[in-house]
Design brief:
GO terms for molecular function: DNA binding; DNA-binding transcription factor activity. There is one protein chain. This protein has 155 residues and is mainly alpha-helical. It is built from six helices and two strands, in the order H-H-H-H-E-E-H-H. It folds into three domains: 30 residues; 84 residues, Arc Repressor Mutant, subunit A (Orthogonal Bundle), CATH 1.10.10.10; 32 residues. The radius of gyration is 19 Å and the shape is globular. The two termini are 30 Å apart.
Length: 155
């Protein structure tokens, strides 16, 4: 365990790195090909990874307000990238799924992102990438766990 002064300094450095990472992600996303800049790609990817899903499940998985997710889904449905169908188990609910055009768009965006990451990481070893990925996942998991624990205490 790191002593308080060293721990505080390390956390401040981490906060600065987080700001830089968020900036880099914003720049990364802003470089998307123009035909995909209005596509809520995160929602599209989550619908794909979840398989057929409900809006409320998508909101929970993304940790976003249902109204925010609803607007993103409405954009995807309007653009023909996602389809809605009645849930056979609950006719009041809609099931969301990628359309063939949504699949093509997601594949294009994922290919573009993979090319950009390959270029940015060309001087990294596979081991460096694996360690970085594992540490980012650990960090995200720890932050989310802490968030969940805080919610539990508040209840």
């Amino acid at each position: 365990m790191v002593d308080d002064d060293a721990g505080s300094t390390a956390r401040q450095e981490l906060m600065a790195c987080m700001r830089e990472m968020l900036k880099a992600v914003r720049l990364f996303k802003s470089d998307l090909p123009v035909e995909h800049t209005t596509v809520p790609v995160g929602a599209l990817a989550m619908i794909d990874s979840a398989g057929d899903c409900h809006l409320k499940d998508l909101a929970a998985r993304s940790a976003l307000d249902p109204s925010t997710v609803s607007r993103a889904v409405a954009t995807l449905v309007k653009s023909g990238l996602v389809g809605r169908s009645a849930d056979p188990a609950d006719g009041r609910a809609s099931v969301l799924a990628l359309t063939p055009e949504g699949r093509r768009t997601l594949d294009e965006v994922n290919g573009w992102m993979d090319d950009r990451l390959a270029d940015a990481l060309k001087d990294w070893s596979p081991e460096d990438i694996a360690v970085f990925s594992a540490l980012m996942q650990r960090f995200a998991t720890d932050l989310m766990t802490r968030h969940d624990q805080t919610l539990e205490v508040a209840r």
